[in-house]
């Protein structure tokens, strides 16, 4: 029924940019709510994701922009832009990405880390300490 998003690896999906909407905030990413339910493990208004582009180099982890996933319902004006499960972004981002471009939707960090970066910071500290002791 929906072409997108396509799960390529656990919690990583590929879709296309369907368009832009004033209904979304700058930090929100909209997808047809039916497509979310049928094709993903994303939880609307709860899951945060990052976007990647096949023709661009991926930014370092801490510099990646995060988006809150929003389900787009049939009664919303932006619904026509996500009929097949395409990604809809805020109209404030219209200059940055062209419609039809393939995007990678990555929710791995959210499901594995869940906004708690203390474990990552602790691992960096241990690694740094180990590196100092080895030299």
How would you describe this protein?
The chain is α+β, with helices and mostly antiparallel strands. It contains 3 helices and 7 strands. It has a single domain, classed as Barwin-like endoglucanases, CATH 2.40.40. The protein has helices at 33-39, 108-113, 118-134; strands spanning 6-9, 12-21, 28-32, 48-53, 66-72, 87-90, 102-106. Strands 2-6-3-5-4-7 form a 6-stranded mixed barrel. A hairpin with a 2-residue loop joins β1 (6-9) and β2. The radius of gyration is 17 Å and the shape is elongated.
Task: Sum up the structure in keywords.
single chain; Barwin-like endoglucanases; elongated; 135 residues; 3 helices; alpha+beta
What order do the strands of the largest sheet run in, or round the barrel if closed? Answer: 2-6-3-5-4-7
Can you give the mean pLDDT?
87
What percent of residues are in strands?
25-35%
Number of helical segments?
Answer: 3
Low-confidence stretches: none
Alpha-beta content class: alpha+beta
Percent helix, as a range, is 10-25%
- Radius of gyration equals 17 Å
CATH topology assignment: Barwin-like endoglucanases
Which shape, going by the Cα principal axes?
A: elongated
How far apart are the termini? 58 Å
């Amino acid at each position: 029924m929906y072409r997108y998003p396509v799960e390529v690896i656990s919690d990583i999906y590929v879709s296309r940019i369907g368009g832009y909407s004033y209904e979304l905030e700058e930090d929100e990413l909209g997808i047809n709510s039916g497509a979310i339910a049928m094709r993903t493990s994303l939880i609307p208004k709860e899951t945060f994701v990052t976007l990647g582009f096949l023709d661009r180099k991926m930014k370092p982890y801490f510099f990646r922009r995060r988006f809150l996933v929003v389900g787009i319902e049939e009664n919303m004006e932006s619904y026509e832009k996500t009929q097949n499960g395409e990604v809809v972004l805020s109209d404030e981002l219209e200059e940055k990405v062209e419609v039809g471009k393939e995007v990678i939707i990555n929710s791995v960090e959210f499901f594995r880390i869940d906004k708690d970066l203390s474990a990552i910071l602790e691992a960096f500290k241990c690694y740094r300490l180990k590196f100092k002791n080895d030299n």
